[in-house]
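JOB MANIFEST
job_type = single_chain_structure
chain_count = 1
residues = 216
[input]
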Amino acid sequence: MNITEFLLEAGGETAGTKEVSQTSTKEARKYFKKSLSKLNLVLNDEIPEFDNNYKKLRKLVKNHGEEHRRDMPVVSWKQVKEFQKSLTNGDLDIENPFNENLLMEIQLQGNEDKVKAQFKSLKAKDLKPVQSQIYLSKVIKNFKKFGIPDNNHFITTKYLIIDKNNRIIDGHHRWTTVMITNPDIKIDLLKVDLDMEKLLPLTKAFGISRGNKQNS
């Protein structure tokens, strides 16, 4: 598999099935075993540490996931570099980037709100989810379309977005696919020097202002 083709473009999709927080390790193993067999793959061969990886994933989701998926931002991977430049140039009004309904174009300011935003890579296990609803069916969809990742590092332009505390703002199902496969794999991402409370609504407003279809 060409690892640069693996990560999916973000968002605007319908909800999946088999929510992580509601699915036990035993149930998840049964689901993955059956789903992978349809792809002529054997779970124990492809993901020998499935149980341990899934337990780590589920613990992170249950401990840190607090936002409903419909409230999460949708930013295409093609827009992440534009978002990064807007932040570092001070083009976005950090304190009030949108109207109360999150439907207006982001207000452009001078250079008074510059924010540090850097591209880097971190291990999947060092990131924390914000979204509470994460679906195993979307992981299977990734496996079916791209295969199971077998690299120690994702070299890709399809960056996740995280806050200054390593909390995921955009890209939860891409992260989940890596966590289930191998939590030590590094993922390329954009780390923004804002906490979740400021970055999440700002990112959502940015996606809306660009006409991105929101999650249902």
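[summary]
Strands lie at 117-123, 160-162, 168-170, 186-192.
The chain is about 35% helix and 10% strand.
exit_status = 0
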